[in-house]
Amino acid sequence: MSFGDPNNPYAQQGQQPGQQPGYGQPQGAQPGQGYPQAPPVQNYGAPGYAAAGPTEMPGITKAARIFLFVIVACQVVVAGLYGYYISEFDANATGLDGTDAEVFADIGKGLLGFLLGLSLVFAALGLVLALKWTSGGNTVRVCAIVYGAFAIISGLFTIPVGLITLIVAILLIVFAAKGDTAEWFRRPRP
User: Residue 10 burial (CB < 10 Å; 0-12/13-18/19+)?
Assistant: First the structure.
């Protein structure tokens, strides 16, 4: 009885009874041998399954929202200070004579007016983020992190009130980047 050319590795080699199967040949598994099967994976949030995610806003997420309101309040105070400085600018610049001094004073007033408007816009953006905090998606969280980075920069330039802004903005970034906050913003919504 012939089983083909024994020197040809590609030839179909027959299996004589009682021999081990060749390399790469399927081995007949006997029942009860091998590794046990893993339980099926459940897809939470998929159609037909229960939705996963927190049902109540975590405390750390509530704190981040409060930090947004504190930064908004600090920006309004800074805007008020800029408005006060603009109103007092002409009274303090009365001793200056000449056109160059007037031009310099006008540039200073214009710069203070620009900073006043910028801090009001910044306060308005923070207020929108704080109000969308409960119903917004993950984009609100990411925007709050970016807002906190800009709040750190603005806090450096307005150091008396900005020190509070600086500390609270750092805490906002840390709390908004936490896993519990991320889970809150990724939760399924009705």
Answer: exposed
Of 18-27, 70-79, 93-102, 132-141, minimum mean pLDDT range: 18-27
C-alpha distances out from residue 91 to 87, 116, 117, Å: 8, 19, 22
Helix or strand holding residue 99 (H, E): helix 99-131
- Structure tokens of 78? 């800074």
Do 149 and 160 meet the contact criterion of CB atoms below 8 Å apart? no
What is the reported pTM?
A: 0.67
- Which positions ≥6 away from 50 have C-beta within 8 Å? 44
pLDDT digits (tens, 9 = 90+) for 92-124: 766 666 777 777 778 888 898 999 999 999 999
- Residues in Cβ contact with 190 at an 8 Å cutoff, skipping those fewer than 6 apart: none
Task: Count Cβ atoms below 10 Å from residue 17 Cβ, excluding itself.
Answer: 4
What's the distance, CA 108 to chain centroid? Answer: 37
